[in-house]
Each structure stands twice: as C-alpha cells, then as structure tokens.
C-alpha cells in the first residue's frame, strides 16, 4: 500500500522487493495520474523486467494507463480494475472471457458486440490490442515506451471521461496517426458522464487522420 506522499524512488524500491518475493500482482486502487514521473528512474525499468520474468500483473483504473503502456511495451498485460471490482454484476459471458484471459495461454479471440462507425473498406483487421484512457495514453507515447513504434499491427481501444471535445479530437488524431494503428475501438463520454453519440463520433473521425481506418463502437467498454 502506497499513498500520494510516497516518493517515487521509495515506491519503486519497495515494489522491486515485493516483486522478488512471491507477489502475484499489484492493485492500483486509484488512478495513475502523473505516473509517468516514474519513467525517468532506472529502477522503473528494472521493475518492469522483474514483472516480465515472474509474470506479475497490474490491475488498475483508467488513469493507470501510464503504468500499463510500458507493461505492454515489455509484453506484459494488465486488467481494468472495475471489471474485477464489480465482477458480481457482470454477465456470465464476461466472466468466462475474463477467466480465459487469466488462465489460458491464448486468451484473446474475436471481439463481439462491436458496431462499425467507419469501415474504410476493410473487412478484417488483426493486431495487438492496446486499451486505455485516451489522455494518459497520449501522454505515455511521448516517453520512451511507445508500443506504436515497437509493433507493426496495433488495434487501439480507447475511452475518455473528462476531456473537452477539442482535446478528444486532438488526442485521437495524434495516436491514430501512427502507421502501425490498423483500427480503433472507441466509446467516449463527455464531462459529467454524458455519452458522445455515434453521429458525433462519425463527424470527429472525418476530421482527423483516422478517417482512412476502420473505427468501431463498443457499447460495453
């Protein structure tokens, strides 16, 4: 357990010790806003390598994307905390999918329940699924941990809850401009929790570089 007053060096040192002593995972009970401060420390990279070697997972909320992107860069995965916190409310299908993700060697298959917003003439797309909060993902790509430059085929799944329309358009335009991004899965909410409509998303897509790639709407994001 770490609080907001814990120094980055102290936190990383203690996480390293825990990682070497039979820890199965870390649970981020709050968002990871400003977590990219950790990237400058050499011990952060050492921690990632230990987590990779011992297959330690990270569970966090959407702002923890700033921790999750470097994990993806190092071929690790993480889980979105509400999917576990409110597991008792989820459908049987969701529970089965989560079970596969946790315990099978090849957990991911076709994603169902997707509505096409922009098909761009593409009928099937394959790639590494990278999911997270739009704003924090955007900030993370400016670091040395940018999976868009590491992997040739990426499918982005992004959500946003607190940004203005203009920021959503700007951030989405930036992260979809990479040649490695083959498709995007979106579900945005305005400030106050009001959903963007599909028609608004369509207009947004037409104004940015994503207009030439398939974009899908995932209602149960």
Overall description:
- There is one protein chain.
- The protein is of the alpha/beta class and 221 residues long.
- The protein contains nine helices and eight strands.
- The longest helix has 13 residues, at 42-54.
- The model has no long low-confidence stretch (mean pLDDT 79).
Strand content: 15-25%
> Which structural class do the helices and strands define?
alpha/beta
Low-confidence stretches: none
Helix content, binned percent: 25-40%
Task: Write the element-wise H/E pattern from the N-terminal end onward.
Answer: HEHEHEHHEEHHEHEHE
Number of distinct beta strands: 8
Rg measurement, Å: 18 Å
How large is the count of helical segments? 9
Please render the helix and strand layout as text.
Blueprint: H1 8-19, E1 25-27, H2 42-54, E2 57-60, H3 65-73, E3 78-80, H4 81-85, H5 92-103, E4 115-118, E5 128-133, H6 134-140, H7 147-150, E6 154-160, H8 165-175, E7 181-188, H9 198-206, E8 215-217
Helix pairs in contact: 1-2, 3-6, 6-8
In short:
By secondary structure, this protein is of the alpha/beta class. It contains 9 helices and 8 strands. The model has no long low-confidence stretch (mean pLDDT 79).
